[in-house]
Each structure stands twice: as C-alpha cells, then as structure tokens.
Amino acid sequence: MRSDYCGALRSADIGREVTLCGWVDRRRDHGGVIFIDLRDRDGIVQVVFDPDAAEHFEQADRVRGEYVLQLKGRVRARSEATVNPNMATGEVEVYGIELEILNIAETPPFQLDEHTAVGEDVRLKYRYLDLRRNEMQRNLRFRSKLTTAIRNYLDDMGFLDIETPILTRATPEGARDYLVPSRTHDGKFFALPQSPQLFKQLLMVSGFDRYYQIAKCFRDEDLRADRQPEFTQIDIETSFLGEEEIMSITEGMVRGLFQQLMDVDLGEFPRMSYEEAMLRYGSDKPDLRIPLELVEIKDLMTEVDFKVFSGPANDPKGRVAAIKVAGGNDKLTRKQIDDYTKFVGIYGAKGLAYIKVNDSTDLENGLQSPIVKFLPIEVRAAILERLQAQSGDLIFFGADSYKVVSESLGALRCKLGEDLNLYTSEWAPLWVVAFPMFEENDDGSLTALHHPFTAPSCSPEELAQNPLGALSRAYDMVLNGTELGGGSVRIHDQEMQQAVFRILGIEAEEQREKFGFLLDALKYGAPPHGGLAFGLDRLVMLMTGSDSIRDVIAFPKTQSAACVMTDAPGTVDSRQLRELNIRLRLKEEQVG
Ligand code: ASP
C-alpha cells in the first residue's frame, strides 16, 4: 500500500512520486491550502493539498486528527522560509495528488502532544493511542534493537536460547507467587515462575553448557515505583565457568550494548565488597556518581551523655554514622532539612540530627545544632576531624540499628545527590561481590540473601557452624544506583544444597516435596555451574533515560497490579469456577 515511510523522506527524494500511509497528526487550513502532518512509525512529514486537485482537496478538507490515510504525492523542497530544522523531514514536503481515507477516527480522549495533561490512568486505558506518541515509539524501538543486540552477542558467545515453562512450581526468589489453579488436578496449583532459576540449572545438568533466555518472570509483590508484577529478564546460565569468567562475559555484553547503541564507553567495572558498599554508601547498589559517603562514628559515641547516640553506639547491632555535605550550610534551607527528616522517616529513622559547621576553629560556639550541647568538646573535635569538615559544611547523623542507619543515610545520600546535582559522571557501573549467604530476620530465622541455590565460599561444615558469617559466590551488577542484574555460582553438590536448606529451616520432608527433582538431578552428575539474570526493563529504562519502567513496556500494569485497558484481573463465570472446583468465599458471604 505504500512506497515509503513518512518519516524517512529526505532531500534526496525530491522529485519522486511516493505513496504514504499513516495517521493524521495535525491538519491545518491556511487560507485555501490544507496542510496535513502525516505520521507513521518512522516520523512525520508535511503534505500539502491545494484546490487544484479538486476532488482530493475536498477529501483533505474532511480529515481530522488520527484519521488513517493513504495518499499519493510528489516530494518537493520546502521554500527556504518554511524549512523546519526541528523535523527530520523538515527540508521537504509532499505535494498531495490523491488522498483516500482508509478509516476515520473519533476525537481521541487526549491529544497525543498533550499527554502530560491527562493522568497516567487515562494513558494506560487508551494505551494503543499512548503508544502512538513519538517517545513511546522510540522507547519500544530501542528495546527491540537492544534485545536483538543481546541475542547477537550471546549467540556469538555460543549461548543457546532455550524456553522454560510458565506453568510450573514455585521457585523461591523471595516474593509471593502468582498461582494458577489446575482443572485436571483437583485442588492443585501451578505457580508462575519468579525466574527460570531451577530449569536453567537443570539445563546445565543436561549438558547444554551455555543457556540464555529473554524470559518473562512473575512476582506478586506490593509494587514500588520501579517494579512490575510481570517483567522480563535476560536469563543466563553457564557450566564449567567460575565467577570471574561469568562476570567478564556479562560485563562485556553490557559494555558492548552501551558502545553499540549509545556510543558510550563504560570502561572496566570496578568491584566492591558488600561490606564496603554498606559501610561507605549504606546500600548494596551504590550510586557511585555521587561523591558523598557515610562515615562511621560509632566508636566516638559510646561515652556521650546522649541516649540517641550512645544507645546504638553500645549495641552490637547498632550503627552511628554521618554524611558531610561540603558547603551545605548555604545550599540547604531549614525547610529542606525538615523535609529530609521526613524523608529518612520512610526508612525507619526516628529523626535526622545535623550540625552546621559555621566556624570549624571554634568548637565552643562555631557549631550550630540542637544536639551539639550533648557532645563534649573532644567528641566535636573528633567528628570534625574524621569527616574532614570545614567551615560552611553541613553534617547529617544517623543513629539506630545497622539496617535503619544504612538504609536511611544511604537513601539520603542519593536524595542529596539528586537535589544538589552532585553527580560527577553520567554513568557509574560496578560489581558488588562477597555478599553474605544469609540475612537474619527479626525472629532470628535466616533468609538467603540471593536465593537458596547460591554457592557459599566455604565448606558445608563451616557454613553450618557460622551461617551468618558465611559469604556467598554471588555478584550483582549495579549502574547508577540501580541493580541491573545479579547472579552467582550455584551449589552443584547435593550435600551442600541440603545443608543450605537445613539452615533455612526447610526440613527433609519439605526439601523432598518441593525440590526433590533438583536434589535428584544433583545426584546424576551435575557440573559446576553459575549464571546471572539482568532486568531488561530497567536496563531499557536507564538507557532511554525514561522516568518510569512503565514507559519502556508496551502494556504495563498499574501500581495496583491491574491492567486498566483490558480490565484484568477480571471475574470469571461460575461454570469456569465449577470446573476448577473453586468456590469464592466472597460470593458465599454475599449470597448468605
Ligand atoms: N534467578 C536469579 C534472579 O532472578 C538470578 C540468578 O541467580 O541467575 O534474581
């Protein structure tokens, strides 16, 4: 139906007769001459109809926004005064010869170029219209280019693309499962995969050696801003490679993608241990573009007559730390400091103490703060020295459990970086390594920090003796404070796998019931193996500079995990429920 894409026409096409198909982006009537901006997935071109083409001029007069047209015309140069340097096709226009209206359109619920004026709910309800917008077209095209480049890289490296099932059993990745009732197995449920973790490990047992998949994963979590209940992973697994080789292959992939698609050289990724990341940045995904750091001052506070500080300072699970904002005295207002106090509250901090260093040489009167009176002169001196604080600096403090201080000051650090625009570079990748195997829950039980299939760096005996001290062979790739991907060398030994399950409180019977197939597979010659998974959506979000993960997914869910366009999740009719032997309690109550 067409000879060219609208957005592809350039000066080189001048004189050609073209047939175009697309949507009316805008129609303007300029005293007898009608201008139609015709849009397709490549862009927009201006088409001009004058009354000479009488019959078609009449048609052109009838068209409205979002009508679908096929038109024939001749490409010609725009007059110098009307060249539009902001348009890719701005040097040319098409002189319209014929026009056929292929379909009419009702007035859309929002103008595509005024989408910001409507709520996101409206955009999502009419997603097919929202996706016509240039930005969304660009994002999804970029995403397609990216996945093609990923496939090419992995294919070149000998990886095989193998699909794994969607209807499966739960894999513990730490979130709630989406369940699907089975009609043929009464009272039983499939779980949608939180990741293909176990299947990819089994593929290694089968000898495929290098696997990848661009895989949908499902996690029923309460959604935070950058999460989706179904999301896409670039899932990778390899055999007979250690962490160094796996990190090198995947770092090479990400570096190559940035080079190829964005002409950005990320350089070699530095490495940092989990412990160092938590100490210096209060986060296991530090944003290294921001030069601020957490400084430990626990040892300075054990003796002070100020419970807020001395309490955590004397508690083995406590932490007291500070962040210095150089020159912060002038940069931050009282109101901003109050807002930061509220902000750290989100992370459980009960307050946000601060000191304004007005004169670093006058420890008696040069420090301005509600808390300074509680601190003896020598402690004030020690704080300033440790933080290398100078006149004009502002110091924030956190004192609470290790977790609360790290999380709240870690988040404050990022917020200050953003608010004060402290970024020192555009991109800051790194690997975080040497994670602990387990973390302790409030009730004293243990959870795997990554997942229970991650290999520890020690023997099963050492692990059982001191689980909280054990490190794992896991690694996370972080970019600009976002976790791009994570993985590990896996346990390939049945005994070790059982030891980990035991520490996690999964007893023999449950091990058999849930993971019997894995434990069996480990008996039949499982090779040493390991892998990693990247979050594709987040990668696209970062690379396109999008604000939200929803802007790089064609049909995303809302914050409440619903699709407002299809109205999913929806109700099902009673026959379907009967087939599944499901009776809704809700219904019973309503009836009863
Ligand atoms: N399955 C892990 C995840 O989804 C990634 C991995 O260990 O390969 O986070």
TrEMBL record:
Enzyme class: ligase
EC number of the protein: 6.1.1.23
Pfam assignment, any one: tRNA-synt_2
Principal subcellular localisation of the protein: cytoplasm
GO molecular function: ligase activity
InterPro entries membership: Aa-tRNA-synt_II (IPR004364), aa-tRNA-synth_II (IPR006195), aa-tRNA-synth_II/BPL/LPL (IPR045864), Asp-tRNA-ligase_1 (IPR004524), Asp-tRNA-ligase_1_N (IPR047089), Asp/Asn-tRNA-synth_IIb (IPR002312), AspRS_core (IPR047090), GAD-like_sf (IPR004115)
Domain of life of the native organism: Bacteria
Subcellular location: Cytoplasm
Site positions (Important for tRNA non-discrimination): H30
Residues annotated for L-aspartate binding in this entry: E173, R219, H450, R490
Family statement drawn from the similarity comment of this UniProt entry: Belongs to the class-II aminoacyl-tRNA synthetase family. Type 1 subfamily.
HAMAP family reported in the protein's UniProt record: Asp_tRNA_synth_type1
Function in brief: Aspartyl-tRNA synthetase with relaxed tRNA specificity since it is able to aspartylate not only its cognate tRNA(Asp) but also tRNA(Asn). Reaction proceeds in two steps: L-aspartate is first activated by ATP to form Asp-AMP and then transferred to the acceptor end of tRNA(Asp/Asn).
Name used for this protein in its record: Aspartate--tRNA(Asp/Asn) ligase
